[in-house]
Amino acid sequence: xxxxxVIISNQPYFYKKAELFPGSAFVIGADTAARLxxxxxxxxxxxxxxEILDGCKRTGCTFLVGGxxxxxxxxxxxxxxxxxxxxxxxxxxxxEQFRMDISSTxxxxxxxx
Length: 113
Description:
The structure is a single chain. The chain has helices at 14-20, 30-36, 46-58, 104-111, and strands spanning 25-29, 62-66, 68-70, 73-75, 90-93. It is globular and about 40 Å long. The chain has 113 residues and is α/β, with parallel strands linked by helices. A three-stranded parallel β-sheet has the order 1-2-5. Strands 3-4 form a two-stranded antiparallel sheet.
């Protein structure tokens, strides 16, 4: 990753981050990837989810997905049902290359944030 810029943002929505930082690769956990493609988070609308994520895709953004412990089970990108039209914007980070069983919430608590 030498020569790459890392940006930390407090913007809660990836579609807004995609607008602010077109062409970016967002590093997320499998749990977040599952929420990204869950229509529940788009007023229950599958078509709205596709429309919003397609907008992210058009900015050239991708999601690098690391495995995460979810309810005691290690989940990876391949465990998530990603819509076919969006699959090329999600890239798996193999557990052999990166596995850290701690959440960002836990890290913030330890730092007193």
